[in-house]
Design goal:
With 232 residues, the chain is mainly α.
Amino acid sequence: IAAIVGWGKVLGTIVSLLASECYAPGHVRRTMPLGEDRYTTYRVGEVHGRMTPRAEEVARALKCADSSKVTTNLWGERWSKLVINAMRNGLSAATGLSGNQRDLSEHPRDVSIRLGGQAVRVGQALGFQLEKLQVMDAETLARAGEGSADAKAEIVDQLVTLSKTRSEEQRPSMAQDIFKGRRTETDFINGFVAAKGEEIGVPAPLHARMNELVKKVERREVKASADLIKGL
């Protein structure tokens, strides 16, 4: 957008945590509670990181929907959200698992943690200041993905706790895309993490594999199944 209209006309926003589903034409169902005081759902920021009246105006407007704030760390906020999406969306799309099935089953959860850890390391190498990943600390997630038993125990406990805040029907948007036969955005999530990692010399091979699996399911070469991640 900025390449067309100019950076001065661009304002960034990220939705830190919100789950919903368009289950019928014109009908949207939210599958987790409002953020309110527990966490800030919307983060609005200028690309240059300064506080401005227009950013504050947009943040005030978004408060009509849920909690919001102005951030001075837009790029870090966006990569932090990418970490969350990259450890969940493709995994649920490839396996067909709901959010809770994914986070409460040992092997899918392990794959999710490793995906998250690799995405954190790529973001850190790019120089981003990562925010809290919902309730998870970025460095702890990275260490958990690299095999630290203490870090993994902490992250597993947090993922199990988070599962209690969402409905059993909740599925990430990419899993909904697969279910509805739509084109996915895997190239811009797992594929993007893998590509940026390769670009800067911080490998993210699990993201490359996940990207390939989602594309196979999307092309209907294979059916979404937890069996697809057995070798990961």
